[in-house]
Amino acid sequence: MNIILTRPLNDAENLMQELFNLGHKIIHIPTLKIKSANLEKIDIENFNALVFTSSNAVKNLSIKGEKKNIKCFCVGSVTEKIARLNGFTKTISASGNVNALKNLILNTKELKKNDKLAYICGDQITLELDKELAKEGFRVKKFINYFSEKITSLNDANIDLIKKYPPNVIFVYSLRSAESFNSIVANYSLAPMMTQSIVMCISKKIVDYLDKAGWKKNKIFNPGNEIVELERIT
């Protein structure tokens, strides 16, 4: 299959290799540029748990304190994997979206009301999780430790690849990324090459946006299950 991946290279590299080994044709079109916010170190000894809404929140983390002692709630399996690679051991993962993460935190036995949580995220969010958790009795401090900048340009090599190998499947990982990708398609008049593309989205909000933008085959998937989803399609 011809597949477009829209994550930054450092997030997509391993998956690209796996898909390539399975015989798929991969076109990498990053839609967001990630920049660190360069925050001062977060003293995690002041918190009962950390809440990560993306792998970039983990990658741009600067802390004081012992990683092995603190509970980490991660939005999905990819974020949890990155957290473990960064030395956190008490991790638990939701199913890949922020609503699932909220429900995981509310229903866990690992926390009690009035516990103090460090909510670590980027500048663009789909749900004000800190406010939602505060309503439930948690004490939440929000840390924005990275910024995302839209990429709406495309190099000639990728334009040629898309025209030569029209994508069967496109993976999109955030609403902001979907907006950027939609702009790229419009800017370079690539819509005729995308008419049969299945767009795999991590949330209903992304599906709704793409539906309104005129995309016809939009489906929800959980990050980390890309290969499983491709097997279902084929």
Helix content: 25-40%
Major β-sheet profile: 6 strands, mixed
Strand order of the largest sheet: 3-10-9-5-7-8
What number of domains?
2
What is the compact description of this entry?
The protein has 234 residues and is α/β, with parallel strands linked by helices.
Description:
β9, α5 and β10 form a beta-alpha-beta unit. The chain folds into 2 domains: 2-31 and 151-233, Rossmann fold (3-Layer(aba) Sandwich); 35-148, Rossmann fold (3-Layer(aba) Sandwich), CATH 3.40.50.10090. By secondary structure, it is an alpha/beta fold. The longest helix has 13 residues, at 9-21. Strands 3-10-9-5-7-8 form a 6-stranded mixed sheet, sandwiched between helices. Strands 2-1-11-12-13 form a 5-stranded parallel sheet, with helices on both faces. The N and C termini lie close together (9 Å). The model has no long low-confidence stretch (mean pLDDT 93). It has 9 helices and 13 strands. The protein has helices spanning 9-21, 55-59, 77-85, 98-107, 129-135, 156-164, 175-187, 204-212, 226-233; strands at 2-5, 25-28, 32-36, 42-43, 49-52, 63-64, 71-74, 90-93, 116-122, 139-150, 169-172, 198-201, 218-220. It is elongated.
Helix and strand topology:
Elements: E1 2-5, H1 9-21, E2 25-28, E3 32-36, E4 42-43, E5 49-52, H2 55-59, E6 63-64, E7 71-74, H3 77-85, E8 90-93, H4 98-107, E9 116-122, H5 129-135, E10 139-150, H6 156-164, E11 169-172, H7 175-187, E12 198-201, H8 204-212, E13 218-220, H9 226-233
Helix pairs in contact: 7-8
